[in-house]
Every structure is written in C-alpha cells, then in structure tokens.
C-alpha cells in the first residue's frame, strides 16, 4: 500500500467514525467512549493531511500562474517567491504525517510502576539505587507527575536494596519505558581511602499500570501470605501482619507490599503490581510477535541489558543504546532526563519509520 493510499484510508476512517457518532442513537456509553477515542487519535493526522493537500493545490495554482505567458511579470515573481516558501513546507508535513502514522503502543498513555533494585556492588550499589530513585522522583516533579512508593527495602545506610513506586500522570509510560535495564555507576565510594573508582550497578524495570479491564485475575490462582513489615535495621517494626506477599501460581510471579500500615491497602497495591507484571508479559509477547524479524535499535528493554553508565569522576552519562554521551551528570541526577529520553524516542521513531517506508 502506497503512502498516499494510507492517508486516504485514515481520512475515510475519520469520516466514517464522525458519521457513526452523528447518526447512531443505539450506541451504549462504553462504545461511544471507544469510538470517540479512536476518532480523537485520528484527528491530528487528518488535520495535517488537510493542510498538506491544500498546500499541494496552492503549489499547482502557483505553478500554472508562473508558466502562463499571459501573467504579469511582477505577479509571476511574487508567485515564484511564494512557491519557494510553500515547497519548504511539504517535507515538514510529510515527516509529521509519517510520525503520526507510526504504530502506537497502547500502553504509552498509561501510568507506570517503577522498580529499582541494587545489583552487583554491595552497599555502593544500594546507595546508587537510592540515587536513581531520587532522580526519578525529581523527573516526576518536573513533569507534574505523582510519585508514590509501594514498597521500600532500605539498607540503613541511606541505600535501597529495592524500591517500587507508582508514577501517575499524563503519558508516563511513554517516557519512563526507556529506563528499563541495567544502570551502571563508576565513582569513588565515601569509604574508599585510596580514591579508587568502583563500579556497581542497579536494575530498573518499568511496567505499564494495568486496569482490571486489561487483566482479569482469578483469585483461585493466587497464594496470599501476610507477614510483619519491617524497615531498615529493625526500624518501623509493625506489630501486626500487615505486609502482603502474593504469588501468582500459573506464572510463579511474586509481588509484595509493606508500605501501608493497613493489610487491606497493602493487598490492593500488591494486586496492582501483579496486574502490571502480567500485563507487561502480554504486551511484550505481542511486541515480540510483531517484531519477530527485527531487533529494535533502542534495545529490547531486557532487565539484563546494560543501557546506561554514570561516570562521576568524568561527570558524564552515556546511553549505550544510541551512543549518546552528555557531560552533565549532575543535572541528569537532578532529574533532567528529557534530553536523553527525547533522543531515545527519536531513535525509536527512526527505526519504526524504516519499517513502513
């Protein structure tokens, strides 16, 4: 199918959906919401297609005017100048339409569940995991997102063995999904008397938050255990069994939550985390099937994949998926991640464009 045929199909679908909403009186609320969302998703590209085709028509008119020997010389000169300006707009419209035609990840609009775990490197890895969590907290603040802990396992030295949080806001997953993988740090620990640089790592996983409509969980498939919550070094010991651990028997996925004092609230949060993990498994399986013949240029997002290095002595951060190096590590650790993430988005778009063109 040619590019122009794809555009014609989009415009026709947009008109069809408009007609359905205008004429059908038998639609139920859920169906109206689904059609309205589909219509809204097509509105931007239809607007650009309309502008593109109007520009093409203007170009044809101006070309005819310039080539007409009966036209006044001054008029032809003005038309030629306008023609040059319009010709510069066409590639911009084409690029915008191509990007709008790219297949969309249904999870991009969802909230995200963020998991950070200390990897190799002992106490230094736990301190780095805590630094990453604070980096994401600041990034969330800059985007007016809500950052709420679900589970936190502290080391007692300011580090985190693991931390789980839900990040809520507009299109959270579309930004944070690029953070999944192994993050490596190179720096001199405070306890290092010889000034030697140590390397340690932390693992980040980002899951789209799933609704009950997305994933149906059968309670017969769950084993639910309760235990006493406990903070770092024996602090915040709970005298009741408020912490909850849930095992999903068919997949053997285990989740836990102890952040709330109420067992009921911890259970609800743990179920939310389980639903997200099951949804992510399904989403990744669909992605693997869709892209079985290629590997995305930005990497698989696998948690075992080293994606980024933070080198403190040199003040640099390097994203290995796109060979991007920035000498602004201090600002990145303050949550200024947009430059890195925008570069990853552009690279992903380039890979998808290569598939459809």
What's the quaternary structure here?
single chain
Tell me the helix content: 40-55%
Q: Please state the average pLDDT score.
A: 84
Helix/sheet category: alpha+beta
Largest beta-sheet characterization:
8 strands, mixed
Q: Provide the β-strand percentage band.
A: 15-25%
- The overall strand count is 11
Number of helices: 8
The secondary-structure element order is HHHEHEEHEEEEEHEEEHH
Radius of gyration: 26 Å
Give the termini distance in whole angstroms: 10 Å
| Low-pLDDT segments, ≥5 res | 232-238, 293-302
Main sheet strand line-up:
2-3-1-5-4-9-10-11
Shape label: flat
Describe the structure.
There is one protein chain. With 357 residues, the protein is of the alpha+beta class. The chain has helices spanning 3-23, 29-67, 73-101, 122-142, 172-176, 263-290, 329-333, 338-356, and strands spanning 112-118, 146-154, 160-168, 181-187, 198-208, 222-227, 243-248, 253-257, 306-311, 316-319, 324-326. The strands form two sheets. An eight-stranded mixed beta sheet has the order 2-3-1-5-4-9-10-11, sandwiched between helices. The longest helix has 39 residues, at 29-67. The protein is flat, with a radius of gyration of 26 Å.
